[in-house]
Specification:
Blueprint (H helix, E strand, L loop, with lengths): L12 H14 L3 H14 L8 E8 L4 E8 L4 E8 L1 H21 L12 H4 L4
Antiparallel strand pairs: 1-2, 2-3
C-alpha cells in the first residue's frame, strides 16, 4: 500500500473562498484539487543533468501547436499544448531578438562560432 503524507498551507480568505467555489462547481474536494496540482507540477520539474531536443508539432484538427521536449533517455516533457499560431509566431520573434542581443554581447560575428566556457576564458597561455 502506498504511504501518504499530509501537507498544509495558509492562504488568504479570498483565495480560500475562490477555491471552495471552484471545487463545488467541479464537484471535487479541495484536497483532490490540491493533490492533482502538486502531482502535475512536481512531475514537470526537470533535473539539471538532462539532454533532449525541442519539438514543435502542428495539430491540423485543432489548428494549434504542441511544444514537446524529447529527452535523450526516451522520456517526453509536454511543455505546452494548444499553442495558437500568433503566440508561436511571437515566441519565435522574441527568441530571435534575444539571441541577437546575446550574440552582440558575446561579440559573436560568425554563425558557426560558439561561446567559450567560463573556465577557458580564465586560462593564460
Amino acid at each position: 500500500m502506498e504511504e501518504l503524507r499530509n501537507i498544509s498551507s495558509k492562504i488568504p480568505v479570498e483565495t480560500y473562498t475562490q477555491l471552495r467555489n471552484y471545487c463545488e462547481k467541479e464537484k471535487i474536494t479541495p484536497s483532490h484539487f490540491i493533490r492533482a496540482l502538486i502531482e502535475k507540477n512536481v512531475v514537470r520539474v526537470v533535473p539539471l543533468k538532462k539532454a533532449g531536443i525541442n519539438r514543435i508539432t502542428y495539430n491540423k484538427k485543432q489548428d494549434n501547436f504542441e511544444w514537446i521536449i524529447d529527452e535523450d533517455d526516451g522520456n517526453q516533457i509536454k511543455v505546452a499544448l494548444g499553442i495558437n499560431a500568433e503566440f508561436l509566431s511571437n515566441l519565435i520573434q522574441e527568441s530571435i531578438s534575444a539571441m541577437a542581443l546575446r550574440n552582440d554581447y558575446l561579440k559573436k560575428s560568425k554563425k558557426s562560432s560558439v561561446a567559450f566556457p567560463t573556465d577557458i576564458k580564465q586560462l593564460r597561455m
